[in-house]
């Protein structure tokens, strides 16, 4: 069985979903894909179902009742991946902000450099973001500065959502105990993995803002990151991180 699973959460991604699936399957390395669709009203899931006729063994989908949050979508996917026995589990957006070709580099970091988590990093080698307004770039960059100051992690891109995990990381983390459910979920997963002592490597990537569809960012994301990170750090003093 193919050991690599790419989890792609979707909500109203009909303009991107077919192209992103075909781009992943065109790579010179074998990946399976799991779509977690939150009842997209635009027919995203219908497009995936049609494509499953072409790739019945490689393309999978979990349909949820509604928009339940990015973190819960990934946790659903992580549990599915563990149950099915995948060795390397990837997070990736549907909108081509993450270049599918970079899946190879993330995989290599885990397989060849023994990383337990490989992060597709926008800030490892400067600021590699295309088509974002300067205000959003600064907010994202200084969010990582803030997270590093609070947590003590030395990860440059703490909010990155393009990652590869070894299965043992997801088996070790108590997924149901992850508190942050929005985009700050990405911070908590890195922080928890770091606290457990897993090896984390950042792989430089170029992040390109979506061309089609609408961004899922909202004002609540900033508040969750600011206050959620403080709470996360506080509660970490009362937890045991033993593998």
TrEMBL record:
GO cellular component, one term: membrane
Single GO biological process annotation from the record: glycolipid biosynthetic process
Statement: the UniProt record of this protein carries the keyword Transferase: yes
Pfam families: Glycos_transf_2
Top-level taxon: Bacteria
Keyword Cell division assigned: no
InterPro entries the record matches: DPM1-like, Glyco_trans_2-like, Nucleotide-diphossugar_trans
Domain Glycosyltransferase 2-like: 6-173
UniProt keywords, alphabetically: Glycosyltransferase, Transferase
GO molecular-function term, one example from the UniProt record: dolichyl-phosphate beta-D-mannosyltransferase activity
Protein family according to the UniProt entry: Belongs to the glycosyltransferase 2 family.
PANTHER family in alphabetical order: DOLICHOL-PHOSPHATE MANNOSYLTRANSFERASE SUBUNIT 1
Protein name: Dolichol-phosphate mannosyltransferase
